[in-house]
Specification:
single chain, alpha/beta, FAD/NAD(P)-binding domain, five-stranded parallel beta sheet, 25 strands
């Protein structure tokens, strides 16, 4: 493609789980619409191609993390990263999506032209968004941003005093070196979230010693590696039925657990900690190392298949230390308690940086738009911004449940625009709307980035709900003639 404008009906930004899913929805529900996917990296798969650390796996069950239109047929409930990547690429191949992807095209800006009723999207080909690549422009009727909300280029790294004095190797899990040798090495993993609880059991059998160093504990639940209900159903029903029944069972169970955490947090806390005590034995100090100072689902729960983290601890292959870092030194890490952790390798499983909608700069008729000043319509569009949607998932359930609903809703919008010969669809706020937090969630990566988020309202259609059944009814079954959605 040269620098001349290329034009499509729908431009999708991002070829990860959400972008490929959205493209598949277009192929299935809007076959007459031309589309293109712009992907900043050189391969599809998003997170599942980016992350290469040992043991990388889903932190949600695959019956709800997979696409609704493509049954998850593998027996694994929590799946390894390579299986998820293959699944995403299979979906792209089955729906003839791959040929529509332009790789190494990083979208940096998008301007809506009111005179043309189109978006002009600027991307850098072969660059990293810093002006080093060749600039290309694509024109589209509808823009669908599927970048998610975290920064692929840089994981979160806290400031550690004396880190330059450490003689060993420091690695961030998001940027895993291809040939990192940790065989028979002393390893410290800093963190307590999904990445840390994945790394520890995956590495523990090969290291001389492995310590998971955490400031505060996380709630960790053991779930079966293979779902027992699905196993029983497979004896009697075809795979498609097994998938759909198990998917809905998982959805309802996730909702039950979340509502229990809001209504009876002490009871859920007692149950989760009781399971940990059962896994680690009566002599383990669960109060110090696995008892958070908040209630379940104030932050995200971590799931471990068949309790593999607890198995590694029980076998003596891994240790959990709960303390604060004072400073790094030549041999390792000095803790505020006075304890020293010597290490050859320190792995930072310290979390993500958020970058809403890929950090794209939006403008309307050349005037730059600050998305933090706009309200979100039905969890996927911005007030006053025409012909645009974006994807974000749930914090209390699987990401893909919401991105599936968003993709189907966008297809419904596009088909209604065709039927009515409309050129624009724009959310328009009517009446009073009070602002409430978009993500009512106390995870560190959310708290650090709240100023980047758009506004969330206190009523429909301006409130982003964390409830799949409610969204399923509203987005899949609800009518599109909303008083606050303007078709022209």
């Amino acid at each position: 493609m040269n620098n001349a404008h290329e034009s499509v009906d729908v431009l999708i930004i991002g070829a990860g789980l959400a972008g490929i899913g959205g493209a598949c929805q277009l192929r299935r529900n809007c076959p007459d619409h031309s589309f293109m996917i712009l992907e900043s990296r050189s391969a599809s798969g998003g997170t599942w191609d980016l992350f290469r650390y040992p043991g990388i796996r889903s932190d949600s069950d695959m019956y709800t993390y997979s696409y609704g239109f493509k049954p998850w047929r593998d027996k694994a409930t929590i799946a390894d990263g390579h299986k998820i990547l293959n699944y995403i690429r299979e979906a792209a191949a089955e729906n003839d999506v791959e040929r529509h992807i332009l790789y190494q095209h990083k979208v940096v800006a998008a301007n809506w032209s009111s005179s043309d009723n189109r978006w002009l999207v600027t991307a850098e080909r072969g660059g990293s968004g810093d002006g080093s690549g060749e600039s290309v422009t694509i024109s589209c009727k509808f823009m669908f941003n599927c970048c998610g909300y975290y920064d692929y280029e840089q994981g979160y790294t806290p400031e550690f005093a004396g880190i330059e004095d450490f003689r060993g190797q420091v690695v961030h899990a998001q940027h895993w070196p291809a040939n990192l040798d940790y065989q028979d090495k002393r390893v410290v993993v800093i963190g307590s979230g999904a990445t840390a609880v994945t790394l520890v059991p995956a590495m523990s059998k090969d290291t001389a010693s492995l310590v998971m160093l955490q400031r505060t504990p996380t709630y960790i639940a053991s779930i079966p590696a293979e779902d027992p209900m699905a196993e029983r159903l497979r004896k009697w029903l075809p795979d498609n039925w097994v998938f759909r029944l198990t998917r809905w069972q998982k959805v309802l169970f996730q909702m039950y657990i979340y509502h229990l955490s809001r209504r009876k947090p002490r009871e859920l806390r007692r149950y989760l900690l009781g399971q940990v005590r059962k896994a680690l034995g009566p002599d383990y100090d669960v109060a110090t190392h696995f008892t958070p100072n908040y209630y379940p689902w104030d932050q995200r729960l971590c799931a471990v298949p068949d309790g593999d983290l607890f198995t590694a601890i029980r076998a003596g292959n891994a240790e959990v230390v709960t303390d604060h870092i004072d400073k790094f030194n030549f041999e390792g890490i000095q803790l505020k308690s006075g304890k020293q952790l010597n290490a050859d390798i320190v792995i930072l499983a310290t979390g993500l940086n958020l970058k809403f909608a890929g950090g794209v700069k939006h403008s309307v008729d050349g005037k730059e738009i600050d998305i933090t000043e706009h309200f979100i319509y039905r969890g996927m569009m911005f007030s006053g911004m025409p012909n645009m949607a974006f994807t974000v998932g749930y914090t209390n359930s699987s990401w893909t449940l919401k991105t599936d609903l968003t993709g189907k809703y966008v297809c419904r919008l596009l088909n209604k625009m065709d039927r009515g010969n409309y050129s624009t669809v724009t959310p328009r706020m009517k009446g009073e709307v009070d602002e409430v937090p978009l993500l009512d969630f106390d995870a560190g990566y959310v708290l650090r980035a709240r100023k980047q988020f758009p506004k969330n309202g206190n009523r429909l259609p301006w409130k982003n709900y964390q409830n799949y059944v409610r969204d399923f009814i509203g987005l899949r079954l609800g009518r599109l003639n909303d008083d606050e959605l303007e078709f022209r």
